[in-house]
Design a protein that fits this description.
The complex is a heterodimer. By secondary structure, chain A is an alpha/beta fold. Chain A folds into two domains: 231 residues, 3-Layer(aba) Sandwich (Rossmann fold), CATH 3.40.50.300; 394 residues, no CATH class. Chain A has 29 helices and ten strands. In chain A, helix 17 packs antiparallel against helix 18. By secondary structure, chain B is α+β, with helices and mostly antiparallel strands. Chain B has a single domain, classed as Ferrous iron transport protein A (FeoA) (SH3 type barrels, Roll). A five-stranded antiparallel beta sheet of chain B has the order 4-3-2-1-5. In chain B, a hairpin with a 5-residue loop joins strand 2 and strand 3. Chain B starts with 10 loop residues before the first strand and ends with a strand. The chains are: A alpha/beta, B alpha+beta. At the A-B interface, helix 4, helix 11, helix 12, helix 16 and strand 10 of A face helix 1, strand 4 and helix 2 of B.
Chain lengths: 655, 72
Amino acid sequence: MAHCHGPDLTETIKGDKRIVLAGNPNTGKSVFFNYLTGLYVDVSNYPGTTLEISHGRIGSDVVVDTPGVYGISSFNDEERVARDIILSADLVVNIVDATNLERDLFLTQQIIDTGIPVLLVLNMMDEADRHGFTINVELLSELLGVPVIPAVAVKKIGLSELKDNLSLARPGNVTPGVQHLLDAMIGRVANKGEALLLLEGDNIIADRHGLEPGEYREEIYSRRRERVNIIVGYAVEMDSERKSFSQTLSGLMIRPITGIPMLALILFGMYKAIGVFVAQTVVGVTEETIMIGMFEPAVRELIGEFTALDSPLGQILVGEFGVFTMTFTYVLGLLMPLVAGFYFFLALFEDSGYLPRLATLVDRLLTGMGLNGRGVIPLILGFGCVTMATITTRLLASERERIIAIVLLGLTIPCSAQLGVIAGILAGLGGQYVAVYVLAVFSVLVMAGTALNALLPGNSSDLLIDLPPLRVPRLDNVIRKTATKSYNFIKEATPLFALGALLVSVFQLTGILKFLQNLLAPITVGFLNLPPEAATAFIMGIVRRDFGAAGLANMSLSSIEATVALITITLFVPCIAAILVLFKERGKKEAAIIWGGSWVVAFLVGGMVAQLFNLFGQESGAAAPLVMVSFIFMTTIIAVVCSVVKSRKRKSIVV
Amino acid sequence: MTLDRVKKGQSVKILSISDGLMRIQAIRFGFAEGAVINCEEVIPAGPIVIRRCGQQVALGRQMAGKIDVAIN
């Protein structure tokens, strides 16, 4: 196991005292962290996980952030990392949401039970007020046995009080009935914290000491829960449930009758903002005017000083697919504005609390595809970056859910860069072609999902998701997230694009491109009814699908040709970065199957659309609706067959 | 009765949770055995949304079927 020798990171971050920030998700920890550490913050990857841990300094002490968790145990990567960092702390600053004390104080009491000095920060006191809670801060502090600081982080209330009072942190009152269990265990391990987790049956801690995990988890958890409820009962007065606007809105988002139209409206807004405004107006300036109009001629002039532009080297560097021209024009001029637009919306979703509500809304649909509502989160993140989303499938509970999500991501979800280009092209085609595109890709998603659900062994887990209060996202936070993610996009995409440009240029110069075009011609020309040059886009698409889509953007295609090409490139193989992650996460065999399967599905579905248009008459107005009806028909048949297979299998297990 | 049969707006007391991992998660979230919860939303054939104090949680239908409750 990766953690056997203890966490490296917790040993490498050194300071006089180690101050650790801990709390549930969405409690506003980052504001306190940024205030305490100032500008100089290091972000490092926690060994063996994909989690990034920030740490900074306050005087000679070090401050370490932890992932938001509901408790420390070994349920998932977040908890394991939080557990290791908290256990290595000299003092813990525990940030809790004052509107949700019954839940948040469970973690608080668990940290107190580890014997580490704690300072409690009651954040969002203003919201607690609005919800009708009155919190007796002094009594709360007395009952827990640790100092309590009320705060409203977003209004900068309580920040300096926290900084000034860090030294007041002290060990609190251990949950009644747990102390004697701890006393019996404490001689056998390094400290009280490890003793506690061992009693709670944490098998990683047990492994480290070569001991058997304890069997007191439920007993200790129940006692702790009881203790927390008593404390909250004494220290918090609740006005009878006031129904706020955000609660009403939350209900509307979850109920299908109102939730689906709201989702449609949000998606339409995104399409208008990104597909129309960014893809046309903004990109018109960044790509046409700045990159093609100013940047490319300047680079050509510069390179022209050293080598003739029509020489092979000149062609490779600044020709049609030039490493210095096409790479930067595509990455900075075309994709960057689109990617930033998507990340802006994703940050809004994340910060407002919409994602868990969306998960609840679509749970029913996703259970048919072997996922639960939580599966919508990697799928949505996939619209940002499929590579990153593939990693986040780790948050899904079972292996079969992970496989299903990864296949759907690789096959049907276009990443932001690609979708931006696609939305830009679609916007010029007209409504019925947009509908054909969306319906064809969505049908493949449903068909692949239901088929996998029927074929893969086992059963998927059920939904259990926390719905945090809806909040208006803070613009500075949203912009910071957008900027960070867009920067990472440039960093990751540029070398791959340069590689792609180099490859295509070399292929073109050596005649391999023509050869491949001819090789693919029976499919691209014969089956997909596309011009032969379209093959270039697919060859480019092997490197990155957005690269391929960008190639299509510069070809003149009829509406039907464009629709077919876009459907094919969407379903085409995931980009090189995503494939590398796929190899790492799923192994050679599965990655190869997914990659090869994408070729087949992409050309098969694209070809079907082209042939259906042929069949129904390209010029007739009824062609597009008839194509759509055919896809709905196919999806229904597959869904029915799959549900029969699935229920047969279930019956055979029962019998 | 099990939680998946509760109607919107009803207040129920949790009697037992038959799934082990679920029981642990429930203790953390604050709706352990003995807790009184409100059913806020029932999505047709979908999840059940419950609330206890400020805490709102969506539960899958199958999971809700493993939770025994009594009308409060």
